[in-house]
Design a protein that fits this description.
This is HAD-superfamily hydrolase, subfamily IIB. By secondary structure, the protein is an alpha/beta fold. 32% of the residues lie in helices and 24% in strands. The longest helix is centred in the middle third of the chain and has 13 residues.
């Protein structure tokens, strides 16, 4: 399929899109849909702010069928191998953002292809909920302990996002792509989902008109703007729904309407 007969690619955000908020596992319907449309000549690109290790875990049943666009497009994997070259944050950015997180009582989550590193100084509910028992997660007291190049740093705020975000955008927007990715967090990434969409389409020699994107948050905007057809989830912000005028209640239902039109 990589060389011929590719009909289109669906670029799907995960949290709030393929995976409703509060759910911990994909529905059987989503898994079956991925199996079905892959056999019909389409690909699904899982486009998430999550790192590769987390996505592999969540999409275990279809990990050989989908493309993974991880850390907001900073790393792209297909069938267990990099699809194109990965991109990374500068070490100086990693160190500076880490120190800025400490100074503002924020948890820093540093994502690489091999591990996830969490700043030891903050003990937050997010740490316990998502990372406490993960074999690939490691708490660190110093960014020098990060053993690989980093794709992304997620800043988890302690009730102070509106105060903290403008500072990070002013200080680091020339060095990283910055976008809100949750109610109390934002990502500083080496790429963005729109750049990743373009790289995937180019790799498969697929016209942008044959790309479809689904998302619900600010970090999805770059791919929603670039895709041949874009949909935002109904629970998205009014600002997002005003810009992207096609809205979606159920991703699977919308994909089926496209594939079987």
């Amino acid at each position: 399929m990589e060389q011929f007969a590719l009909k289109g690619i669906f670029f799907c955000d995960v949290d709030g899109t393929l995976l409703p908020y509060g759910n911990k596992r994909l529905s059987d319907e989503v898994i079956e849909l991925i199996h079905q449309i892959t056999e019909l000549g389409y690909l699904v690109c899982i486009s998430s702010g999550r790192p590769y290790l987390s996505l592999q875990e969540l999409f275990q049943e279809v990990k050989e069928e989908v493309i993974f666009s991880c850390c907001n497009g900073s790393a792209l994997f297909y069938k267990g191998k990099p699809l194109v070259d990965e991109v990374f944050l500068k070490r100086s950015v990693l160190e500076g953002v880490y120190e800025d997180c400490l100074a503002r009582d924020c948890l820093a989550i540093i994502a690489t292809s091999e591990r996830i590193y969490l700043s030891l100084q903050q003990d937050t509910p997010l740490r316990k909920k998502h990372y406490e028992n993960r074999s690939y997660a490691q708490s660190i007291a110093d960014p020098a302990q990060v053993g690989q190049d980093a794709h992304q740093i997620t800043v988890c705020c302690n009730g102070n996002l509106e105060e903290v975000l403008p500072y990070f955008k002013k200080t680091w927007s020339d060095e990283a792509h910055i976008a809100v990715s949750g109610n109390s967090m934002f990502d500083l990434s080496a790429s963005n989902k729109g750049i990743a969409l373009q790289r995937v389409a180019t790799h498969f020699s697929l016209p942008l008109a044959q790309t479809f994107a689904f998302g619900d948050s600010e970090n999805d905007l770059s791919m929603l703007r670039l895709a041949g057809k874009a949909f935002v989830m109904e629970q998205s912000s009014e600002a997002l729904k005003n810009e992207i005028t096609d809205h979606c209640r159920d991703v699977g239902e919308t994909i089926r309407s496209i594939v079987f039109a």
